[in-house]
Amino acid sequence: MEAEPTSNLACFWVAKETVELREHAISTLGDEDVRVKVISTGICGSDYHNWKSDKIKKPLVMGHESAGEITQIGSEVKDRSIGQRVAIEPGFACMKCEFCLRGNPNTCANLKYCGLEPTPGTLCRYFVCPSWMTIPISQDISWKEAGCIQPLAIAVQLGRRANMRAHQTVAIFGCGPLGLLIMAVAKAYGVKRTIVFDIEQSRVEFAKRYYADVGIVCPLNKDSQEPLNFATDFVQDVVKQEGLGFGVDLAIEASGADTCMQMAVVMTKPGGTIIQAGLGTSLSSVPMFLVTAKELNLKGTVRYTPGCFADAIDMLDRKLVNLEPLITSTYPLTRSNEAFKAQNVHNDIKIVVMNQE
Questions:
Q1: Which of 127, 125, 115 minimizes the C-alpha distance to 72?
Q2: Which of 204, 282, 291, 355 allows an S-S link to 215, with CB 3.0 to 4.6 Å?
């Protein structure tokens, strides 16, 4: 058994574009809890948005995409063991509200989430949580990959919401980390064809080397053409060029851009499905008359539901998904501020912090 830790260095968000390393008290271990020595943590877009924001009430430990090794277990814990490698589920659902009781803890009315006020995150050396919030991982998964299991679980949840099937053609708008993980899950589900879009050539090229079948750079509306006409003209050219007939079966919007939302609606064939995954502005412009006229299924998706972590881990174990190419930089916890500054430059796909370094 590892000696009782005397220090728990953590990355605190303290001001706009500023994090500091400070000591953070380790929570008391409850009877049904485990203490995890956190090894790796991926930096998420929400962490980055917090870092960019000045709307801070008090210093908060960041991070929620973490994995590590169990170093202590509570007296009532029977299904976890010291030394076990685990991923950490970062959402504390109440399991009592109507949404939890119907199997949707991702929309829990009382949800607390690591790294979001007021709940401390996992970008620290040690973290205590209920044992059922830890999901075992095998020795075959590297610690760098383990720090990206949580976003892969979110992509798995999206696949469930989309009801992905082998016969489908899928359009994905946005080749950031989420869009890339959705491509990986779509390929693992055996979809027939994935066509991806981004405004950056380098991201499109990366996506084609990863899991995309077709990658297309979206033009910018520099001539201030009417937005829906602009989207329609572009999509019609793509549909004709790629021989898509009446459009794609499934469109996934993972950028949050209004233009991509409009393109997704135009590109989806009658009776098809659109999944909105990107977080755009609080109010977006979507051609709802086309949603109605084509009888489209328009769905949102958020976080993950029970079993998504296990499915994501299984995909990694069976080599159906490879996360290593996405991880373009790693930083020690002691250089967390540099990691966030690197995220701000947007040259990396995915940055992982190694919590014990």
A1: 127
A2: 204
